[in-house]
Amino acid sequence: MDVRLMDSLVGAVFLMLLLSGLGLAEQDPCWTCRNLVNNFMRGIEKTARQNFGGGNTAWEEEKLAKYEGSETRLLEVIETACDQSDFECNKMLEQNEEYLETWWFKRSKDPSDLSDWLCKDTLKLCCPEGTWGPDCARCPGGTDKPCSGNGKCNGSGTRGGTGICDCYSSYGGPLCMDCAVGYYEEAKNESHLVCSECHRSCSKCLGPEDDQCVLCKKGWLLHDMKCIDIDECGTIDRCKANQFCLNTDGSYECRDCDKSCIGCMGAGSARCKKCNAGYYRDGPKCLDVDECDSEIPKCKGLREECVNTEGSFTCVCEKGYSRFGGSCRADPKDDSEKGLFDDITDDEVVVLQQMFFGVIICALATLAAKGDMVFTAIFIGAVAAMAGYWFSEKSDRVLEGFLKGR
Ligand SMILES: *[C@@H]1O[C@H](CO)[C@@H](O)[C@H](O)[C@H]1NC(C)=O
Ligand SMILES: *[C@@H]1O[C@H](CO)[C@@H](O)[C@H](O)[C@H]1NC(C)=O
What we know:
By secondary structure, the chain is α+β, with helices and mostly antiparallel strands.
């Protein structure tokens, strides 16, 4: 099978798996229901004056009144209530069309909120805002202002969720009434809490400056309300062989030694403990050995030459030779793959140029012959330009010939 065909097949299968995976990720039924209701209400709006020109003849008024609460309109609205590709929505619609019908025909008498009536009270897929879970339990902090208004109650308004407060970034605690780690209380009254960031070295502080710390983050040591960076690299060997330790603010990193080193104290070829194979020491540095620069030729094959590389060398074939089964052989003289214009000489290029201009001038001449003033002007201009080009070209050649003593 063609490799590219194979690739695209594999890609298609992968895409299908991915899409079905996304489809399988279960949609919250409450969300599906609310979405369905939104689309349904939009459909009602859209059909409000549809099919009617806005004229108000008695006949039209009467027809409009009939249509308004009709089965016809209900079916039109239902038709647009779900996106065709939205499987969950279509399933829910199919299973609950009778409820929509009930609501539709009683609507004028009881214009209750369809979302609450259908999703919450009838299908029991949703909960009132500020409550969550199968039994619609109250969110932490009460239903009016769950999570103190500083976070989201997980699952609020649905029959799912965990009922736990997901606090906004600067807040913490089960009710989001505290400041998160790394934040301090900038302002607070009974109803509001404003948390601002500590200096990056502290986890608890009284203000934003570096000398207002009460507790330090990991990797820092408290001294006089300041957090001082701990040098983790100082005493213990923390990194693997052939790595060096780099102290950073609040932490440290292990980085690989330069490839010229075996063991090192820092970055670069001047911090090696020992030089790697293929390198020699020159003062503080480990430098690459030029293996090709030696009395004894390193490459012993016929038509081979030595090329130095970092830490080593390779043997390659001389120009015009390529490796076939271990030895260098002359490249076959092959001109079958030459491009279309590779063989063209300068003179031929000139001929091609003239042919090109000739075609354009012919075209312009034809148009000029039809008596069009504009094209006549362009034609004359083109001839003049052509002549100029021709003479300059010629004069160049004459001059060139003259200089060469011809
Ligand atoms: C609710 O919590 C679960 C589990 O922690 C999480 O996967 C989900 O994204 C949360 N939902 C919302 C709306 O934050
Ligand atoms: C608490 O502070 C907020 C903003 O800082 C303010 O809008 C609100 O009126 C204050 N409430 C009380 C009871 O002082």
